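User: Hey, quick favor. My workstation is busy. Could you predict this chain's structure for me?
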Amino acid sequence: MFSVKRKFTARITREGDWFVAQCLEVDVASQGRTEEEALDNLKEALKLYFEEPTPTQEASLRELEVEVGAA
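Assistant: No problem, here it is.
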């Protein structure tokens, strides 16, 4: 397995006592008591987001039938 460094953009907002860091390129966000803590937590969340899954059992495929309304 190889790794590549990528740059992402984070938008930081304050919600009450918390700072929220949201990645603008992918749907990942985190929070912290400070801006730096929120960014550090976002970095960790992004690492987990891009981590290869390790299945604990073989995958199964199933068909689903869903009734949807007209658009």
